[in-house]
Amino acid sequence: MISNLLDKFPKTIETDRLLLRPLTPADESDIFEYASNPEVARFMSWSAHRTIQDTEDFLNYLEDVESAKLQIDRGIVLKEFGKVVGTIAFVTVDFSLMTAELGYCLSEKFWGKGLIVEAANAMIDAAVKSLGIHRIEAECEIDNFKSERVMQKLGMHQEGVFKKRLPVHGVYKDAKFYAKIVG
After folding, report:
1. DSSP β-bridge partners for residue 93
2. Per residue in 4-38, is it b (16+ CB within 10 Å) or e — as a string?
């Protein structure tokens, strides 16, 4: 039942500057380029990719969770360059509550250009139209002010702080929790 519902989400979404699409093994070098940057991985649960094998493992993991219908992941392709510069996902979708949790990662080269906000707005719009989602949630490590700013630009509001919630490089960190009603 749930897999049938997730299948309604569009495979590709286009915005003015971006194409959001499923990742493929051909995206490996693009992903490695940004995922190997320690600053990109700083607030993530994963460490910066040291080898291309790390990136292959990441792509295999995404294939597994996508095929198991556990989350919705899309590569962020910057049309101008025709390459993957990040990822955006609904890391959880709860159809009993009609909520989705947003997650994202972007190459440091493209920070501060509004790309994540553009991608997230497109994903949220697609989730409302195709899945009937009515609430979007997101969280960030308490000191990740750039990610917090993205959530604010999306019109989300902080609803609380969860103690020792996010595993960041093997240590549980406090997380700011944001949400907004979308449908």
Report:
1. 100
2. eebeebbeebebeebbbbebeeebbebbbbbbbee
**pLDDT tens-digit readout, 137-172:** 999 999 999 999 999 999 999 999 999 999 998 899
Q: Which amino acid is at 110?
A: F
Range of the domain at 54: 2-181
Residue 156, C-beta contacts closer than 8 angstroms, at least 6 positions apart: 136, 138, 178, 179, 180
Cβ(138)–Cβ(157) below 8 Å = no
- Residue 69 near residue 13, CB atoms below 8 Å: no
- pLDDT on residue 1: 45
In the structure encoding, which two tokens stand for residue 36, read together? Answer: 């190997």
Q: Pick left, alpha or beta for residue 28 (phi over 0 → left; psi -120 to 50 → alpha; otherwise beta).
A: alpha
- Looking up residue 107, the CATH number of its domain turns out to be 3.40.630.30
